[in-house]
Fold these 3 entries.
Entry 1:
Amino acid sequence: IDAFWLANMNTPRTLSNLKIIKIIVAGTIQENKNHLTTLAACKILVDRGYNVQFLAVGHSLDEALKSKLIRERFVNYITNQPKEELIKLYRSSDIYVMPSVKETFGLVYAEAMSQGLPLIYTRGQGFDQQFEDGQVGYSVNCFDSREIADKIIMITENYESMSRRCVA
């Protein structure tokens, strides 16, 4: 990853409230990044009593998709940001969630990890198997919103240790 992220590693993080989950994704707004499945997982979490905040950061290549996202009261959209601003957004979030349909490696996962954010990533794609499942986050079936929601909850239950391993 860019030296900026290594020079500005964050310390391990804690969750102040297990019922408030701040999710972030950084990347182009397009079908492949699978924002709608993440949105569906967020709705499941809301139905289970969680206060979810979902921040999508990136240039929109699909205005119809962006419209579907920002229609939800718990979603905030911000266009592409320089790394000096993105780091602040990562640090104000809890979990990085990007279950892409297809992914080569995805440097954004490592960038988010450098800020102590546990991850949700796609099983069998790019970042998967870089770490043992459950060490810094979880792999998921990118089309299974219920599994994504369940894994987000599992992260909150082991948040401090996962965050510590992200920056170790």
Entry 2:
Amino acid sequence: MIGSARLCQTVIVTGGARGIGAETARLLATSGLNVMIADIRDDEGQALSDELAGRAAYCHLDVTCEQDWHSVVAQSERLFGHVDGLFNNAGVLAHGGVEDCQPEQFRRVIDVNLAGMFLGIRAVVPAMRNAGGGMIVNTSSIAGLQGYAGLAAYATSKWGIRGLTKCAALDLARDYIRVVSLHPGPIKTAMTQSMPADVVAGQPLPRFGEPIEVARMVRFLFTEASYSTGCEFVVDGGALTGEILPLQPNLPGL
């Protein structure tokens, strides 16, 4: 505890069976935190829990189901004594612009990516109050900081997460619960495996990021970021900074 900010000891990680979620669960557990891995991929989630035996457990979670959320929180409290961290990370991707994306597809993305996080925050707040405070990290994207053609539903959900984060940070500040948003760029996961290599060619760091690089930021947020709330943390290889263009000596000023 530093001042009024609690540094976390027990974290629920949603979407924890693979990708960024799994790498974060692994890093937090090996760093001494208790981790509840929550996902709909039961076999993969349980396997990871077994790998991290003693520091982790697994619980099925459909983030759109309010009862599932209450079960995850209750099981975490029962196993670990308290809950003071939530990595609100589960999400889905759908391609399609405003004309191509079907209404039911749009609603599904919003339901999982945005409403699911809202349900998670509501479910975990009483446990965090009982613990004396805590921290919530909501996974948005750099698509929550700028627009993207062909990603109408996804980008809308990620912008919504950013707004939800700021509102929750204000609403929960008096309970010593901090809330921040995380904005990864192109990270090497199942969600991005179909992206061509040239997507990152113009970035200052011209490669896809690794899940462990995001996980290290999340560990910092839960264990060190005692004076941060309501703000954005970006892990994007400089993608938002701008594109590095090839030098063209025949053009003035280059």
Entry 3:
Amino acid sequence: MIWWSHMTGVSRDYQGRDIGFRLKLAQREDALENGISEIWWTFDPLQAMNAHFNLRKLGAIVCEYEENVYGISSSPLHHGMPTDRLVAEWYLESERVEDRTSSEAPVILRDFDRLRRVIEAHDPQPGSPNLELDESPILLEVPYDFDSLQKADQQLARDWQQKVRTACQHYFERGYVMTDFMLVDTASHRQALYVLENPDV
């Protein structure tokens, strides 16, 4: 049995204080006390901060991409775009989750410059998805600040969504799983990258 988490939200005035993280830890504790070992939810693939929170901080994994889950929305958050979503799977008793949510979460070092990219950003255009990769891990880049991009250029936002959709569906079908997310902020530019791994490669 699993729990489905519909929404975890924090008022803008209180964001940046780890309140969302503490809410999820309380949810995890409550679930375990009730004999529940899994919690699932959806999130927008193009929202880098949500991806970082779900995969890096909480230790969730993703192996499913759903198209237009909630239909076309007129909400200012969606700007009339399809509501595509990734499905986060949070295995509450797994070593991954224990490690990521502990008070001494491990530092994970990756030589990301040497890892192959499914999609790369080209200031700010997305490159065409490379669907021929057969190594593990691989990286999938998304916009660092999709909200600003979406407000500035709707067509570009739709192009990003379509290419990320194509890449995710392709590699999930081949057995890849999103296991991590990296935010790289340097003096020259910023990057947001999903890490995909395939245990059979």
